[in-house]
Design brief:
The complex is a heterotrimer of chains A (278), B (430) and C (298). Chain A is built from 13 helices and no strands. Chain A has 278 residues and is mostly helical. Chain A has a single domain, classed as MetI-like (MetI-like fold), CATH 1.10.3720.10. Chain A is globular. In chain B, β1, α2 and β2 form a beta-alpha-beta unit. The longest helix of chain B has 23 residues. Chain C is mainly α. Chain C has one domain: MetI-like (MetI-like fold), CATH 1.10.3720.10. A two-stranded antiparallel ribbon of chain C has the order 1-2. The two termini of chain C are 33 Å apart. Classes of the chains: A mainly alpha (278), B alpha/beta (430), C mainly alpha (298). Chains A and C meet through α1, α4, α5, α6 and α7 of A and α1, α5, α6, α8 and α11 of C.
Chain lengths: 278, 430, 298
């Protein structure tokens, strides 16, 4: 009665495949780390060898001279507020689409599905003009609102598929208890949707953290700039050397990577509930 | 009750947004004027440091002017400028290339003819011509030149000796150049160091120097379609460059050295015979001289094919990068004062000393003790020829890299197909 | 307040509109209006600044003679061909991990790592890794492949597009796909598996008869996402990996909009590209809507 895949050789094969994929995922990070510890000449002469005398010069230059430390603070602030707002918007709208019945529901939801698709390039310069008229350029509010506008449709979509799956009895029961809209939402629905909220939060936060075109257009002040923007600025006219760029890349990925290591179970578990179809 | 809810949700929404506005609002200072300067080189290590020093010097002398120097990304820089100008964003001064990318925006540049009348003589005429909308050093000046940019071929004299070549004789004739490549190759030295991945800078640079010898001032014809990629001159230049690849005179890794910077570092570390470089910015006399020793670096304008009509031509953009004052700014006067000071005298010298850029202004004394620099300056002033990349439509530069990589690096199309594709994209962009 | 059903329905309607208002406003202001403006600009000659000059449909006829446009369609065709692999692979891995392989949590996390770095960074890193000075070529050289250093994976049309596809459509989506499918499979009732076992079904049979049908919605959703990413989320990866080249081997519509409009100062013409892209996006949206309707009906 033993199924064939339980045999040792099959198992080994599966492990080999998984190890190969794992290496593919880890190698770029390792390569960046390795390169970032070399000076330019050492990198030019041998790109793959381990650094003969590891140096932190690249990090010092990136963090201080290129002001990445400053940008890190900015990014943390903008992305965390942005993510919070985004999660609110998505869960509000997701709840409305998924649980409430109202005229125009399908039409608006169609619009959401449609607008989530467009590439940034198609809208970036128009968005700039609109934001300029609204006085939102060079403000944290501006970039946060634009980020939310750009990322929330997808988040809403996911939240909707989740809320559709929650039995309506839950809502009816809360109503009979006399709960108003926001009590229905905050004390009944959101606790149920917590894992999914975590998932869209991660998707949104990563999207904002790595977002470039809007940040480049919107944020022209040092006290607002983001890390990814910092990397783009550092390239200058002819590009950066790989060691400097690697250090910058790792600095910009440091927070997301460490958060992931800490919360990885949460991240991966979060999706558990979410993917169940509505 | 319902209204309360609406108010509540709006309040929530706004309360989240409001405190943030404070962090980024643009308070207008009452006292000194602020000049906002957008610059795509400000975050570069060397240039950035020099620019900071120059700003500090300027503000010391002009306590009523504050310089708000804003770094921009080079990628998408001109699109950002277009968006900013359309929206009337507060920008007073910009750094710009003196090619079509800059001229596309010239409706927003202050005409400087009157305001620079007092110092006009200080600027090199060729540089002023490059900064004039009509290419005339006497009128329609809309930018002030920060660098005088040219391109040429540097060679490593130490490696020449190793290959049994005469280090004091630059291999200018094409057959001499090819013979030198052969000798270097035989000595195990990669003859020409190039870096071409992504943006084919090295191929691009080589074209610019070689085409100058074929066209001379005829390069200007690429501006209006009177010169074409189908010209026999262009085809011949392409054939020669391609032959360098076919004969293995180019370092094998050139398409994949990740950044152009990497190739520069390779040459600076003593590898290779030739490097097609610039006269300002990077990959120039100072960059290579400091790394290899000035006595070990030679320079010539270009190798010259037998049928090239302008054997002495030295490609010279007149000005590479320049500063422009934006005409809708509230502080045009202060802005013009700033760009004048930036491109001359003490401030200009700071930039020149730090970066090795040639600032084309006579108030900046040029160190004439450096033989290579003097030689380059002589060539640039006596035999200046225009640069093709500043003449073709700015929109086709990216396509040029794509098509050139298909021909030179991927080796997937014939010379005829290559020329045809270039000509087509040139016409599309006209 | 919750008295009669009808009243509750209308108040529900008002509640709903209040809740979607923030999203709606943001979407209309920052996405819908900019997207729509492309239709106008696509009929103008405009470099991105100054007054657009109305030229009717000339941009569209230009499109039909532009090599870049057809290359872009071809590139996207190739990318789409990789989508089945990009869906199947994480599905199979998820099914394997679900069986409780030792260390599965570790692999699940590792596979997700690339998603954290973002496409710009990954593209840049891979442009070095796949280059002639990268580890792959060095490895080939060390095992004695002749002239390995002349293999220029990102520099040849055929290999460049394959690598881009494998990286973007398959590898980059693997981590998210595994997590996503694993989660979906968590919802499958174990009795189905037990029944399959009793029938004596092998692993593959179980996979196709039980696992795949049970997560069919997740599969369809993930496939639609793949299309969205190919059509509308690729420019930064292309930009940093290949620059659309060599030639136009890795040029896509989205990249063209960026290159022609942002870098090439032909914003009017680039808008025509954007409108074509718009049509593709509309098709994707329609498919998505049908999908959701079907799942809601079920």
């Amino acid at each position: 009665m033993t199924t064939s895949y339980r045999r040792l050789s099959t198992r080994l094969l599966i492990y080999i495949i998984l190890v190969v994929f794992a290496l593919l995922s880890l190698y770029p990070i390792f390569f960046a780390l390795n390169s970032s510890l070399k000076n330019d000449y050492e990198y030019t002469n041998d790109k793959l060898a381990l650094p003969s005398s590891p140096t932190l010069d690249q990090y010092e230059s990136v963090l201080i001279n290129y002001r990445m430390l400053r940008y890190m603070g900015n990014t943390i602030l903008s992305v965390s507020i942005g993510t919070l707002l985004y999660m609110l918007i998505c869960s509000f709208a997701g709840f409305a689409f998924g649980q409430l019945r109202f005229r125009g529901r399908l039409l608006v939801f169609t619009l959401v599905l449609f607008l989530q698709i467009f590439p940034q390039m198609v809208i970036a310069s128009q968005v700039y003009q609109i934001a300029s008229k609204l006085g939102l350029l060079n403000t944290r509010t501006g970039i946060i609102l634009v980020w939310c506008a750009y990322f929330a449709p997808f988040g809403t979509y996911i939240m909707t598929t989740y809320f559709v799956g929650i039995p309506r009895e839950l809502l009816e029961a809360a109503r009979i208890d006399g709960a108003g809209l926001f009590r229905q939402l905050f004390s009944v629905m959101l606790p149920v949707a917590k894992p999914m909220l975590g998932t869209i939060g991660i998707i949104g936060a990563l999207g904002m953290w790595n977002e470039l075109p809007f940040a480049l257009l919107f944020l022209q002040k040092q006290e607002l700039r983001t890390l990814i923007q910092g990397i783009a600025l550092m390239q200058g006219e002819y590009g950066l050397t790989v060691p400097t760029m690697s250090a910058a890349v790792l600095v910009s990925a440091f927070i997301p990577l460490s958060l992931f290591v800490v919360f990885q179970n949460h991240v991966t578990m979060g999706a558990t509930a979410g993917s169940v179809k509505g | 009750m319902k209204k309360l809810r609406i108010v509540l949700i709006l309040a929530l929404f706004i309360s989240l947004a409001m405190p943030l506005i404070a962090g980024g609002s643009n308070e207008e200072a009452a006292g000194p004027v602020t000049i906002t300067y957008w610059d795509f080189k400000f975050e570069e290590e060397v240039s950035g440091a020099a620019f900071r020093e120059m700003d500090a010097l300027f503000m010391e002398d002009n306590p009523d002017i504050i310089i708000n120097h804003v770094a921009q990304s080079e990628d998408g820089y001109y699109a950002a400028l277009m968006a900013a100008f359309t929206a009337g964003t507060d920008v007073d001064v910009i750094l710009t290339h003196t090619d079509n990318r800059g001229w596309n925006l010239s409706d927003f540049f202050t005409t400087l003819d009157d305001s620079i009348a007092d110092v006009k003589g200080d600027y090199a005429p060729a540089a002023l011509a490059a900064c004039s909308e009509s290419g005339d050093a006497n009128k329609n000046i809309k930018m002030l030149p920060l660098t005088s940019q040219g391109l040429g071929i540097y060679y490593n004299k130490a490696n020449f000796i190793k290959a049994g070549l005469d280090p004091e004789k630059a291999p200018v004739e094409l057959n001499e150049f090819l013979a030198a490549c052969e000798a270097l190759k035989a000595a195990g030295i990669p003859p020409i160091i190039m870096g071409n991945q992504g943006s084919g800078y090295s191929i691009d640079f080589l074209y610019r120097v070689v085409l100058a010898t074929f066209y001379g001032n005829g390069i200007d014809g690429f501006k209006d379609g009177s010169s074409n990629f189908t010209d026999s001159e262009y085809v011949e230049a392409s054939r020669i460059i391609k032959s360098l690849f076919e004969m293995d005179y180019v370092n094998v890794e050139n398409p994949s050295i990740a950044y152009f910077m990497d190739a520069i570092n390779l040459f600076k570390s003593g590898e290779g015979g030739f490097f097609v470089g610039l006269t300002s910015d990077i990959a120039h006399w100072k960059d290579f001289g400091d790394a290899l020793g000035y006595e070990n670096v030679g320079y010539f304008s270009s190798f010259v094919a037998p049928d090239a009509k302008y054997p002495n031509a030295q490609v010279n953009q007149g000005a590479g990068i320049a500063l422009a004052s934006i005409n809708y700014s509230k502080n045009v006067e202060a802005a013009v004062k700033y760009i004048k000071s930036y491109t001359s005298g003490e401030r200009g010298k700071v930039f020149m000393d730090a970066s090795g850029a040639i600032v084309p202004n006579s108030t900046i004394p040029i160190d004439s003790s450096n033989a290579m620099l003097s030689d380059i300056l002589d060539k640039m002033s006596m035999y200046a020829a225009p640069d093709i990349m500043t003449r073709v439509p700015g929109g086709m530069v990216g396509d040029f890299y794509n098509i050139a990589s298909l021909f030179f690096l991927a080796d997937e199309i014939s010379l005829d197909e290559y020329i045809e594709k270039l000509q087509k994209i040139y016409e599309t962009n006209m | 307040m919750n008295g009669n059903r009808k009243k509750s329905l209308t108040s529900e309607g008002r509640d709903a509109w209040i809740l979607i208002l923030p999203l709606l406003v943001l979407m209309i202001v920052f996405i819908l209006i900019p997207v729509m403006s492309n239709f106008y600009y696509s009929m103008t000659k405009w470099k991105g600044i100054g007054t657009p000059e109305f030229i009717g449909l000339r941009n569209y006829s230009k499109l039909l003679t532009d090599e870049r446009f057809f290359s872009a369609l071809k590139t996207m065709g190739t990318l789409i061909l990789y989508i089945p692999l990009g869906v199947l692979l994480p599905l199979i891995i998820a099914a394997i991990l679900r069986d409780g392989l030792k260390g599965w949590k570790f692999f699940r996390s590792i596979l997700f790592l690339p998603n954290i770095l973002g496409a710009v960074i990954l593209g840049t890193l891979f442009s070095v890794l796949f280059s002639q000075v990268g580890p792959l070529i060095q490895f080939l050289s060390s095992i004695g492949v002749e002239d390995a250093v002349r293999i220029n994976l990102l520099g040849k049309s055929r290999t460049a597009i394959q690598i881009l596809s494998l990286l973007f459509v398959v590898w980059l989506r693997l981590g998210f796909g595994c997590i996503y499918f694993l989660a979906a499979m968590g919802g499958i009732d174990n009795s189905y598996y037990d029944a399959a076992k009793i029938d004596g079904a092998g692993w593959w049979q179980t996979f196709f008869r039980v696992t795949v049908p049970s997560v069919s919605f997740a599969i369809q959703f993930f496939t639609v996402l793949a299309f969205i990413e190919v059509f509308a989320r690729m420019y930064s990866m292309i930009f940093s990996l290949t620059g659309g080249g060599p030639g136009y081997a890795t040029y896509t519509l989205e990249f063209g909009v960026y290159r022609i409009g942002f870098i090439g100062f032909q914003r009017g013409y680039a808008s025509a590209w954007a409108v074509v892209l718009f049509l593709f996006c509309a098709i994707i949206a329609l498919v998505q809507i049908r999908l959701i309707r079907k799942s809601e009906a079920a």
